[in-house]
Write a structure and sequence with these properties.
alpha+beta, binds succinic acid, globular, single chain, 8-stranded mixed β-sheet, 277 residues, Double-stranded beta-helix, 8 helices, 3-stranded antiparallel β-sheet
């Protein structure tokens, strides 16, 4: 069956049909999906009851897989991050963020599978960082060009939450020691499309090096707020066994935490990426 693609929002997002992601796909399908990912920035697939092994195998067709140093992972398959949120383990991804920008080589992509969902709520939004950049005025683009920003793991993973018992404390301290703050350009060029995109996010970006603390705070507050402009986003209303596959180099996402005390369980595979420029 041929792959069918239907765009779902103006800035980003397309539904892809005609593939069974449980199967080992031919290289031609993987190449086509890689191109669609760059074009649409986030791809959605319905009815994909993948096992963790099948999800990891699909993700590994696009690169090596990242193992999260702090967030829970499946013990039997640490390449799959377990986002299992409920009143005993509160969601913390209800802010605009790009995954793992505390790394010198942040991920190329995230692949998220919905396993258990609340009756209502728990949608995820993605925002296009290239559409955001292109929406800025020319003087603002010139101002941002050449600036660099610091990204820190501790901003989204504070010790108060992630190092509060002996087992998590040891893992946390190792992760923080291994991931000192890193610097990335504020405006990033996509390595495949060549499109420029804003590369700061509320989750991990702490300050812009070249500005004074007050200037940095004001500029970042303005830039962080832009990600949520509805016309730059797509919102996905999950069904169990949906998969979202996003280009982490050019998007931010926000998981709406409006479902407690219900439970929401997601599995994420994360594909390693390159150094931003
Ligand atoms: C994530 O923040 O990577 C996961 C988003 C979600 O749970 O919808």
């Amino acid at each position: 069956m041929a792959i069918q693609v239907r765009r779902v929002a103006r800035a980003l997002g397309a539904v892809v049909e005609g593939l069974d992601l449980r199967q080992e796909l031919p290289e031609s399908d993987i190449e086509q999906l890689g191109k669609l990912l760059v074009e649409h920035q986030v791809l959605f697939f319905r009815d994909q009851p993948v096992t963790p092994q099948q999800q990891a195998r699909f993700a590994a067709r696009f690169g090596t897989l990242h193992i999260h140093p702090i967030y829970p992972v499946l013990p039997e398959l640490p390449e799959i991050m377990l986002i299992d949120t409920h009143p005993g383990f509160l969601p913390d991804n209800d802010n605009w963020h790009t995954d793992v920008t505390f790394s010198t080589t942040p991920p190329l992509a995230g692949i998220l599978a919905a396993k258990q969902l609340p009756a209502t709520g728990g949608d995820t939004l993605w925002s296009s960082s290239s559409a955001l950049y292109e929406s800025l005025s020319e003087p603002m683009k010139r101002f941002l060009e050449g600036l660099t920003a610091q990204h820190s793991v501790a901003k989204s993973f504070p010790a108060e939450r992630w190092a509060n018992d002996p087992a998590t404390k040891a893992r946390y301290e190792r992760a923080v020691a291994k991931h000192p703050p890193v610097t990335h350009p504020v405006v990033r060029t996509h390595p495949v499309s060549g499109r420029k995109g804003l590369f700061v996010n509320e989750g991990f970006t702490t300050h812009i090096h070249e500005l004074s603390p007050g200037e940095s705070q004001a500029v970042l507050a303005f830039l962080f707020a832009q990600a949520g402009r509805p016309e730059l986003t797509v919102r996905w209303n999950w069904k169990v066994n949906d998969i979202a596959f996003w280009d982490n180099r050019v998007t931010q996402h926000y998981a709406i935490a409006d479902y407690l005390p219900e439970r929401r369980t997601m599995h994420r595979a994360t594909v390693n990426g390159d150094k931003p420029y």
